[in-house]
Amino acid sequence: MRYMMMFFIHPDDTAKRRDPVQAGPYSGAWTAYVGTLRAAGVFVDGNGLRPADTASVVRLRDGRRQVQDGPYADTKDELGGYVVMDVPDLDTALEWAAKCPALPLGAVEVRPVMTAPAVVEPAAIESAAAPLAAARLAGE
Amino acid sequence: MTDPARAAAEAAARASYGRLVAWLAARTRDVAAAEDALADAFAAALRTWPARGVPDRPEAWLLTTARRNLGHAARHRLVRAAAAPTLHLLATAAQDRDEAGAFPDERLKLLFVCAHPAIDPAMHTPLMLQSVLGLDAARIAAAFVVAPAAMGQRLVRAKAKIRDAGIRFAVPGPADLPARLAPVLDAVYAAFGTAWDAPPRGEEPGGPAANLGEEAIWLARLIASLLPEEPEALGLLALLLHCQARQPARRDAAGFVPLSAQDPALWSAPLIAEAEAALLRACALGRIGRFQLEAAIQSAHAGRARGAAVDWVGSGGRAVRGAAGRRPHAGRTRRPRRRGGRGGGRAGRPRPAGQHRERRILSALVGGAGASAGPAGAARRGAVRLRAGRPAGARPGGADVPAGAGRGGDVSGEDLGWRGQNSPPATRAANTAAAPPSTPAPSASAPTRVTTETEASTMAICSAPTTPSNRW
Do the Cβ atoms of A10 and A100 come closer than 8 Å? Predict the structure, then answer.
């Protein structure tokens, strides 16, 4: 399965990216992390993003295009990059996510990538389970 | 429809529902689809068995039919990528064929999936009840005081998340097992908790919650049998069995009967025996834990059934300071006592030999604990004090007490060594709110449903239980 990791970077880490002394070690940690993902053969795609103050947001209002400065979600932690990886299951994806350099301070959102149209309609649970539950109860 | 066919279907449903769902879901990662396929298989069984007779191996028949149903469903969405697990199931069906008679038990995987950290904790218990036991959403909803449609929706969403997020069907490795087992046990305990607060059977005819206690014990037995080396699984089983053993004595015609007034003759001896056996097995494994400690406290109370005195005061004869609940006449219960005696022995009586057994259990538990600080250390100190002869009741065995209640009356934290910096946060909070040890807790601060302050104080011994009322 393919999962996207979205790295939400804490302001302190964002500051490191701009600090000439700390920028090197910080980006080095990311390079090493992505290197590990590649070596494990799970890396599909991924990039860092320029800081959130370079973001522009586009909306359509009354049929007219509106462009605004700034990221879509104005939160303290900003989306700083993403990686798409191919791993067998969520638990493996979470293990990889737990190792990323965003983590001591920030957060990682892990989401399955939709590779095909939605597959199965959620089953009708009640209709599925009711006769069985009735059978269980009747037997008691 | 002939009775033998229906009976066979019912027997198969009861014995193997969870195993069949787990087997199918572990191969497709799709709990909802597995349940659907199995429901269709049961329907087919009820159609065909009366005419053609019950097959030799009903489970194998159901499994084959359910797998075929999954295949039909998959063919309808062949073009879609996520049908792959099902197609894989079909592809491997040939090599699994021999398993049909004795197919592997995947229920443990299913339990860990139901209590996966990626699943909303509020849905752990409902998912288990439905996927492992086959309870319908309406009954689960009633137990959790939720509208049936809402519970059905939440179950559908939770199962969709299991499938779409790709949660792994596997038993966690040794490194993760303790952390992953805790929510599984919590979920079973929560199921038991719903039954505990529910009206007894008969009071509310057909009351759906009344039976969840038995379902919880069924799950606890299952987990203990699947993980026989996990002392906390055994501890939970022992705790639930001890509590269940006292069900017949918890209420009388007038209503609730506090633990101290219960007639031990009404307690179920077989359940107590099973609980004690489980607890002894747990002690032998030498890793102490919350459920074992709570079960050990219940075990001390159960000694009354054999005539052992529950030493409410302390082995040295020193009255426990401020232990209002242990001095039953100070800060009397708000409900009138309906029975004359306090049941079991009181302090000052010679201690019969039967009590030595509880001592042994506690002693073994303590022996297995590390000497470190932290929660385990605090628990160990607590158990040491208990071993020193001050057993007490613990939630939920003692009283008909709602979750989270009774902490205001805590006096036992200090006695049991919980008051240190290293006590768990929940307990520390309870202690902060506690009345000073020298002052019995005023009854006004006690929750309305606390019946004796003994129960209130002893509840605080144990860490805050995870029960439905504070989780849902």
Answer: no
Compute the residue count for chain B.
472
Cα angle for residues B468, B399, B182 (degrees, 5° grid): 40
More confident site: B194 or A27:
A27
Non-local (6+) Cβ contacts of B2 within 8 A are: B50
Region B265-277: mean pLDDT is: 94
CB burial string B200-236: b at 16+ within 10 A, e below: eeeeeeebbbbbbbbbbbbbbbbbbeebeebbbbbbb
- What's the pLDDT score for residue B356? 58
* DSSP label at residue A129: H
For A139, the closest chain B residue by CA position comes to B10
* CATH code for the domain in which residue A50 is found: 3.30.70.1060
Instruction: Write down the H helix ranges in B29-136.
Output: 31-52, 58-75, 84-91, 93-96, 107-114, 124-131
Question: Which of B9, B136, B170 has its CB closest to that of A133?
Answer: B136
Closest Cα to residue B116, out of A90, A112, A123, A86? Answer: A90
Which residues in chain B have Cβ-Cβ distances shorter than 8 Å to A112?
A: 164-166
Q: Is residue B385 part of a domain?
A: no
Reported residue count of chain A is 140
Task: Reduce the DSSP state of residue A111 to 3 states and report it.
Answer: strand
The residues in A 45-74 lying below 8 A from B, measured between CB atoms, are none
Query: For chain B, what is the mean pLDDT?
Result: 68
Nearest to B400 by CA among B359, B358, B456: B456
A132 Cβ under 8 Å from any chain B Cβ? yes
Query: What are the two backbone dihedrals, phi and then psi, of residue A6, each rounded to the nearest 5 degrees?
Result: -110, 120
Rg (CA), chain A: 21
Distance, in Å, from the CA atom of B47 to the CA atom of B9, rounded to the nearest integer, reads 11
Bridge partners of A7, per DSSP, are A81, A108
The SS3 of residue B444 is: helix
**Domain span at A57:** 2-139
CA distance A32 to chain B (A): 25
Is B39 part of any domain? yes
Task: Report how many domains make up chain A.
Answer: 1
B78 located within any domain: yes
Q: Is A91 in contact with B167 (Cβ distance < 8 A)?
A: yes
Enclosing domain of residue B35: 3-105
- Count helices and strands in chain A by DSSP H and E runs: 4, 6
Strands of the sheet containing A2-9, edge to edge, are A43-48, A78-86, A2-9, A107-112
Quote the pLDDT of residue B100: 45
**Mean pLDDT for the stretch of residues A123-127:** 46
Asked, for residue B211, whether it belongs to a domain, the answer is: no
Nearest to B166 by CA among B109, B130, B93, B113: B113
Cβ-based neighbours of B31, under 8 Å, separated by 6 or more: B21, B25, B110, B113, B127, B131, B159, B162, B163
Q: How many domains does chain B have?
A: 1
Q: Kindly list the distances between the CA atom of residue A41 and the CA atoms of A35, A37, A91, in Å, as whole numbers in the listed order.
A: 10, 6, 17
